[in-house]
Write a structure and sequence with these properties.
The complex is a heterodimer of chains A (377) and B (256).
Chain A lengths: L5 E7 L2 E10 L4 H12 L7 E12 L1 H16 L3 E5 L3 H11 L14 H38 L6 H11 L4 H23 L8 H39 L2 H7 L4 H38 L5 H11 L2 H27 L5 H33 L2
Helix pairs in contact in A: 1-2, 2-3, 4-9, 4-11, 5-9, 6-7, 6-9, 7-9, 7-10, 7-11, 7-12, 9-11, 11-12
Chain B lengths: L1 H4 L2 E12 L2 E12 L3 E5 L6 H9 L6 E6 L2 E2 L5 H9 L1 E4 L11 H12 L4 H14 L16 H12 L6 E5 L7 H18 L2 E5 L3 H6 L3 E6 L2 E6 L1 H6 L3 H7 L2 H7 L1
Classes of the chains: A alpha/beta (377), B alpha/beta (256).
Chain lengths: 377, 256
Amino acid sequence: MNGDPTLERIAQGNGLALCAAGPWIARFAPLLERIVADAEKLTGSRPNIFIDVSQVSKLDTLGAWLIERLRRSLTQGGVEAKIAGLSANYSSLVDEVRRVKAAPAVAAPSVTITGMLDQVGRNMVGFGTTIVGLIDMLGAVLAASGRVLIHPRGFRLTSTVHHLEQVCWRAVPIIALITFLIGCIISQQGIFHFRQFGADIFVVDMLGVLVLREIGVLLVAIMVAGRSGSAYTAELGSMKMREEIDALRTMGFDPIEVLILPRMLALIIALPILAFLGAMAALVGGGLVAWGYGGVDPEAFMLRLRDAISIDHFTVGMIKAPVMAAVIGIVACVEGLAVEGSAESLGQHTTSSVVQGIFFVIVMDGVFAIFFASIGM
Amino acid sequence: MAPETQNAIIRVRDISVQFGRTKVLDGLNLDVKRGEILGFVGPSGAGKSVLTRTIIGLVPKVSGRIEVFGVDLDAADAAQRRGVERRWGILFQQGALFSSLTVSQNIQFPVREYLNVSQRLLDEITVAKLGMVGLRPEVADRFPSELSGGMIKRVALARALALDPELVFLDEPTSGLDPIGAGDFDELVRTLQRTLGLTVFMVTHDLDSLYTACDRIAVLGNGKIIAAGSMADMQASQHPWLRAYFHGKRARAVMG
C-alpha cells in the first residue's frame, strides 16, 4: 500500500492486462510518467489491452490523466484499450479528465533575418510613438493649465503642496549631501592638478563656473529624475492598473488636471530651488577643501569667486532648471499612464521613465549649451 | 490514513489576533474535519479573512496554537512547513494571479517547483485543470489582465488545485460570478471533494453555496465562533445575527 505506484503486465490469452497498483498521485509524478511512457510503447503488440485500476490505492487528477493518456495512445496505436475496475469514487474523476482535449502543440518562434528587421522596424516606430506621446502630453498639460488659469477654482493647491513636500522638502538633505561631496571632489582634483603649474587659485574659477552653470543643475536634475520621476511613474502606473484613473474620468474629472498638473507644477517649482541649494552646497564643499587641502583661505576664495563668476553663469543654471523639471515630469507621467495590467509592465515603465528622463535632461543640457554660446551668455 | 480520517485536519486553539489596539480574533477555537466542506460566515469586517490568513501564516497571532495536518505550525521547521504548504491550495479573494505570467505559467508554477515532470505533461495538466474549472484551453496563453473577473477566479482555483492538494482555502470563491457560474463552482467543489477527498475551508456570503455545497457552517462574531453546525442547526438558532442572516429576505428566497 505504502510503496511506489506500479503498472504490472499480465498476459491474458491473446490480450494483455496492465494492472495499476499503489498510489497514483501527484507526489509520484516523475515515476508515473516514466511507467506510462514505457507502457505506451506496447501499441501493436496485442490486439486488446485491459487497464485494470482496481488495485490503485489513491488516485488524483494527475494519476487519472496519465491512465487516460495511456488509454488514448494505445487506442491511437490500433489497440482496443479499456479501463476496468474503476471504483465509483474515482469514476467521476476519470470522466472529468476524459473531457480534456490533448494540448495543442505550439511551434517555437524561430529567429530569422526578417524577424530581426521586423523588430528593428517596430522599435523605430515605437521611438516615434514615444516622441509623439511626449508632445501630446505637453500639449495636454498646457491645455489643462490654460483651463486652470481661466477657472482658478479647479486648481488643486493641497495636492500641489503635498507633492512639493515630497519632491522638494524631503529631497533637500540627500541633494545637499551629494552636491557637497561632488564640490569637495572637484575642488580636490582641481587643486591636485593645477598645483603642478602653481595655478592653485584657478580652482575657484573652475569650481564656480562648473557648479553654477552645469554640474549643479545637471546633477540635481538627474537625481530628481531618479527620485521623483520614478515615484510619479509608479504612482500613476499602479493607479492605472487598478482602474483608479478610469474611475476619475467617469466621475467627470480630468486626470491631467487632477493628477498630473499638481505633480508637474511641484516639480517645476522644486527643481530650481534644489538646483540653487545644490550649487551652494557644492561651493561650500569646494571652498572647505580649497581651504583645508589647498591653503586658499575663505577670504581669498570669496574674492576670487567674485572676479571669476558673472551673474550670467548663475542665470544660465537657473533658466535650465524648470525646463529640465518639465521634461522629467512629462516623461514620468507619459510612462505612468502607459502601464498595462502586469507588475512586470510597471517595472519596465518605471525603468524607462528614469532612463528617458536622464537622457532627455542631458540632451536638453546640450541644446542649452549651444543656445547660450550663440547668444554669448 | 485510516486513523487520521476522523481527526481534525485543521485544529485552531484559543488564538487571538490584534491589529494595534483592536482585537480582531479573541480566543477562537475551530476544528475542520477531514473531507468536509466548511462554510465560514460572519458580518463584513468580523475577521473571516484574518482567520484564514492567520491559519495560512500570513498574519501573526498574539497567542494560541494552530495545527494543520497534525503539524503545529509554530513548532514546525522549514522542511515540515514546506511539506504542509505543498498539501494545501489557496484561492485568494482577488485571485492573486502572477500578473506577468500567462494563465498556463500561473498554473504550472507550483507544479514545476515541486515535481520534476516533462513539459508535455505540464501542458496536459494545465489543460486538464482548466477544463475542470470550466475554462477552454484557448485562455492558457492569455495574461491575467486580459481576463474577466470570473475567469480570474477560475484560473486562481485551477492554480490552487494544481498540485492536487488535500486541503483548499477558498476566500469568497463565488463573489463576482454570475449565478450559473457560481452554481457550477459549487458543483465543482462538491465533485472534487467526493473524488479527491478534498477538505474545503470556504469563506463565503453566498447563501446558495452554503445551502448546496457546505457540510457544516461556522459563524464568526466578536472574535469568536458563535455557532457551528449543519444548515438545520443554523436555521434553528436563536442568535439574533443568525436569525437575520438565515431568515432574511434573501435567505427566504434561496430556501423557498
